Amino acid sequence: MRYWAISSQTDLKRSEGSTTTAVTSIPLFTLASVAGDGCLGIPKDRKNSVYLSFTHSAVQRDYLVYKIDRINEELGTKGSVSPPRLVYDKRTKNFHLSCQSMVVNPVLKELYSLFYLNGEKVFTKKVLDLLGLEALAVFWMDDGCVGATTSAINKGILNLYRPLEESLLVCDWINSLTDAEAKPYRDGGMYRVRINRSAMPRFLAKIRPYVHSSMRYKVTLKYSHYNTKSKREYEASLNIPLMNEGDKAARARSMSAISTMMI
């Protein structure tokens, strides 16, 4: 059995720089990927096997490659990402240029039993208590976005689409990790999660070190020329390097972004 050492959520709350670790037999990056766009399934003709599959838009291929590389490293699998191809989306009833990937591993059976109930993904406190800031960043890169319309500009939206009870658990989890208040809001018969624009700079600063550079647009806000507290907080956060860039690149990009953030 392989083991993964991680910073526990308790330590993350107590001290941002804590080096105390907890040891778990659960592959936590893979679990975080299941929380987002990952889909666990059991093949009809192989009841003892579990697969993990992903579908991302073609523009997110670099991010999917990164995610599969991390999962391969964690599970010892050899998953790869397909070239872009047209895939029919039953929800939107349109064809989209997409990339796909799949891995199969016995460890996934444990994740399936942990995260799924009656064949459906369910967010529970037990699962969320295992996941920290990197998992939240993966979740955000998969299902989060920054509002762009006039009424929603700079608000954070997590496209959760879960019942109210699960949405409240996810909101509590986000607050515990980032001190940014998140609230559920109804969309049809399910709930998404919204983060107020004033809390977004603080939220994005927390997850930024775990965000892949190809998903930079997921942590980008836009401000007018007015010198507000939120704008100053956001400008300061731009000095934090993204997951795969160095301090020098972050500073250079920060100055460029500040000079072009006018709306």
User: In percent, how much strand structure appears in the residues?
Assistant: 15-25%
Question: Which range best describes the helical content: under 10%, 10-25%, 25-40%, 40-55%, 55-70% or over 70%?
Answer: 25-40%
Quantity of strands, as a count: 12
- Strand count, sense and closure of the main sheet? 4 strands, antiparallel
Write down the CATH class of the domain at 4-117: Alpha Beta
Order of helices and strands: EHEHEEHEEHEEHHEEHEEHHH
Query: What is the terminal separation in angstroms?
Result: 52 Å
Which architecture of the domain at 4-117 per CATH? Roll
Q: Rg, please?
A: 19 Å
- What is the count of helical runs? 10
Shape: globular
Poorly predicted runs of 5 or more residues: 1-23, 258-263
What topology, given as strand order, has the largest sheet? 3-4-6-5
CATH topology of the domain at 4-117: Endonuclease I-creI
Structural class: alpha+beta
